[in-house]
């Protein structure tokens, strides 16, 4: 079954059409990269999956079902700039992920449930390479470490779908490479569906199993808000036939930046 289904989805803000006619089936376990020019609607696309955005028309389904009204722990998100709690330690930040996952309303665990959550949090902190820093506050961490913490926090919620909005965009190339080496085995081991927005085609190609490009196919120079973006490319990166198209796509994306 598809983890996510988009059925003729349109998103509009006032009279501005942002996304139009999005039809897409994303199989469970896919690592999907989303590319496209700035303003094309990539973050909007992620917010639709998160349940923060409602389509003006059409429907987005999670495991064949319409979304519950509230964004739930089944979907986690990591933004370009870290989004961890500054007043909590590394351990506290990951623990709160578990608490949100288990206790939607009170967000507190007690006794053995708490001890178990602490153990799991420590294992996750080790997995993202922050073991020696579990008691530090985010302000004492580098950008790359904070981003790893944000990923650990999102994973603590054990989401079926992990959404990444240019998660490595603010990192230096070395840290970026470390993050790539981290995320791929996590995705494989946890059998998640990942949807990652990136401006970096090489990153998309290196990590993803599928790539879509969002862009406008119709333009009205007198009224740019009239038409929205839809899916202009949809590539299966597990097949060699995707390679020549990628070279072309890379040139296009780079020309747009
Ligand atoms: N809450 C909102 N209200 C009104 N317009 C919005 C809102 N959110 C996004 N938009 C508009 O929707 C369009 C798509 O925005 P979005 O942030 O999804 O683009 P993007 O592809 O993520 O761009 P970038 O690569 O710069 O992050 C933009 O024109 C933006 O101004
Ligand atoms: Mg964006």
Question: What's the CATH first level of the largest domain?
Answer: Alpha Beta
CATH topology of the largest domain: Rossmann fold
**Major beta sheet, strand line-up:** 6-7-8-3-9-10
Bound molecules: adenosine-5'-triphosphate, magnesium ion
Find the structural class using helix and strand composition. alpha/beta
Order of helices and strands: EEEHEEEHHHEHEHEEH
Task: Write up what this structure looks like.
It contains 7 helices and 10 strands. Helix 2 crosses helix 3 and helix 2 runs parallel beside helix 4. The protein is 36% helix and 26% strand. The chain starts with a strand and ends with a helix. It has 2 domains: 168 residues, Rossmann fold; 73 residues, no CATH class. With 257 residues, the protein is an alpha/beta fold. The strands form 2 sheets. Strands 6-7-8-3-9-10 form a 6-stranded mixed beta sheet, sandwiched between helices. A 4-stranded antiparallel beta sheet has the order 2-1-4-5, covered by helices on one side. The model has no long low-confidence stretch (mean pLDDT 87). A hairpin with a 2-residue loop joins strand 1 and strand 2. Bound molecules: adenosine-5'-triphosphate and magnesium ion. Adenosine-5'-triphosphate binds next to helix 1.
Note the topology.
Layout: E1 2-13, E2 16-27, E3 31-35, H1 42-50, E4 57-62, E5 65-66, E6 75-78, H2 90-102, H3 111-127, H4 143-156, E7 161-165, H5 173-190, E8 193-197, H6 201-207, E9 210-216, E10 229-236, H7 242-256
Parallel strand pairs: 3-8, 3-9, 6-7, 7-8
Antiparallel strand pairs: 1-2, 1-4, 4-5, 9-10
The protein binds adenosine-5'-triphosphate and magnesium ion (MG).
The site of magnesium ion (MG) has 2 residues, from α1.
């Amino acid at each position: 079954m598809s983890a996510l289904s988009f059925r003729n989805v349109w998103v509009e803000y006032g009279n501005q059409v942002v996304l139009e006619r999005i039809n897409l089936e994303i199989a469970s376990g896919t690592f999907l990269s989303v590319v496209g020019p700035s303003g094309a609607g990539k973050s909007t696309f992620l917010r639709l999956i998160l349940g923060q955005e409602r389509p003006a028309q059409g429907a987005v389904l999670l495991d064949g079902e319409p979304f519950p009204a509230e964004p739930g722990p089944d979907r986690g998100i990591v933004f370009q700039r870290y989004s961890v709690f500054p007043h909590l330690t590394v351990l506290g930040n990951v623990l709160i992920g578990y608490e949100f996952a288990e206790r939607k309303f009170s967000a507190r665990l007690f006794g053995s449930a708490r001890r178990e959550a602490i153990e799991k949090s420590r294992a996750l902190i080790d997995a993202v390479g922050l073991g020696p820093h579990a008691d530090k506050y985010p302000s004492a961490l580098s950008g790359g470490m904070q981003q790893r913490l944000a990923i650990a926090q999102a994973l603590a919620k054990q989401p079926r779908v992990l959404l990444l909005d240019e998660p490595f965009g603010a990192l230096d190339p070395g840290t970026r490479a470390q993050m790539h080496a981290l995320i791929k085995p996590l995705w494989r081991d946890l059998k998640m569906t990942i949807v990652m927005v990136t401006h970096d085609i090489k990153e998309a190609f290196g990590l993803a199993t599928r790539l879509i490009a969002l862009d406008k196919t119709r333009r009205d120079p007198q009224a740019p808000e009239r038409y929205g973006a839809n899916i202009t490319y949809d590539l299966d990166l597990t097949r060699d036939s995707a390679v020549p198209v990628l070279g072309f796509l890379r040139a296009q994306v780079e020309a747009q930046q």
